[in-house]
Amino acid sequence: MAREAGLRSRRATFAVLVAGLCSYSLLQSMVIPVLPALQEELGTTQADITWVLTANLLAASVATPIAGRLGDMFGKRRMFVAVLTALSLGCLLSALAGALPLMIVGRVLQGIGGGVIPLGYSIVRDEFPDASVPSAIGALSSLIAVGSGAGLVIAGPIDETLGLPWLFWLPMVVGAVAALFAFLVVPESQVRTPGRVNLPAALLLSGWLVCVLLAVSRGTVWGWGSPRVLGLLAGAAVLLVAWIAVETRSAVPLIDMRMMRLRAVWTANLVAFLVGLTVFAAFAFIPQFLQTSPEAGYGFGASIGEVGLAMLPQTLAGFAAGLCSGGLVRRFGARNVVTVGTLLAAIAYGLVTVAHDQYWHLQVAFVIMGAGMGTTQASMATVVVSAVPRTQTGAMSGMNANIRTIGGAIGSAVMATVVTASAPVPGGLPTESGYVTGFGMLTVGMLACAAATRAIPGTGRRRRAPVGSGEVAATPLAPLPNDP
């Protein structure tokens, strides 16, 4: 009876986590296809409307690692409810926004919802049996990828049938319901990290993240050699050095630098950066390629809805691969699974580079791309979670997600520079060669990522380390060796 009650409790907890993570991941991508419509609705310029994306990116980059750490300290359920409440309030403001400033405020609050990713992983690790954790984390990771892909699929139909505000009303309802049920059914973790909030470290972390992401996300608008961009990059370097120094000397660090030096953690972060570098860039430019009129010599003249349908196979393949990742990791090891996933993604980008004249060419590439990325992202989450003590799960998985975001911002900016540089006139339509060069660059980047995965430590002999000792918590979940 107790076993059945525990199983029901875990199922309810997992359902709540799924709802919360999906509401956030949908918001990450649903706005991208409808930016021109939002620009017209809000009466703003093409340059200014991109702040709808930039503001959300900046807020998520700051909130994700900090929310994970606060969850380790004060309770995962409490923070999960808090970030979902912020997300729901942000959706409300964006749905009611009649001008750009209020929309941006709403998007900032939605970005705080990024904390659901490390908090969700932490709740799974605390509440689920060790043998079930890899599969559960793999499923959550695949759902995050599915939500991002599904946002591109459903944005057009929602806009056409219900109107733009419903892009925010629907996630608001899902987020609010998830927050309520999280409060009611998710157990509060008894695993806590003692200490207080390291405010100087939090401010320095926020400072360098904002500087670097603002510089790379606005570089194509302001100019890469402009004083603003160069100043932000210089400021990011100074603040990063200061942040590392503060964290290293602190008795209660926000992000424990000892954990960051573990081989499993730093290699996972390197791979996450390279994955973000390629995946985000592809997400940003594949829709543009599909929407380009064939009169330009390439493209398919697809509508927003048709773009979503074209990318649906990728979403489904990613979901299926993510669900299978837990079993694959147990059978073949995380390193081998991640290597295969990144190689599949490299093959997909290579196919897009050389074969994009027919619709079915892209469909084949999208399926391979989805399978590769679904496998990789789900397995990488398991690597990080299993490599650190339970008291560090939120902070370390938050930083891993954040490093992927930084890579994505840089990759998107570089891709934009490469593609738009091919336009015959500034601001004009890019040529096909620009896309070919861009996707060729992504292919090389993913091959480099595949090479980097071989540095991830393989399965080693398990041993049990005391929680909070700074060593790898070696349980059946955590076969990775303590190899700093």
From TrEMBL:
Superkingdom of the organism of origin: Bacteria
Boundaries of every Major facilitator superfamily (MFS) profile domain copy: 13-463
Disordered: annotated span: 458-484
Annotated compartments: Cell membrane
One Pfam family, short name: MFS_1
Name the UniProt record assigns to this protein: Drug resistance transporter, EmrB/QacA subfamily
Keywords: Membrane, Transmembrane, Transmembrane helix
Topology versus the membrane: Multi-pass membrane protein
Record-level GO cellular component terms: plasma membrane
Transmembrane segments: 12-37, 49-67, 79-98, 104-124, 136-158, 164-185, 197-217, 229-246, 266-290, 310-329, 336-356, 362-389, 401-423, 435-456
GO molecular function terms noted in the UniProt entry: transmembrane transporter activity
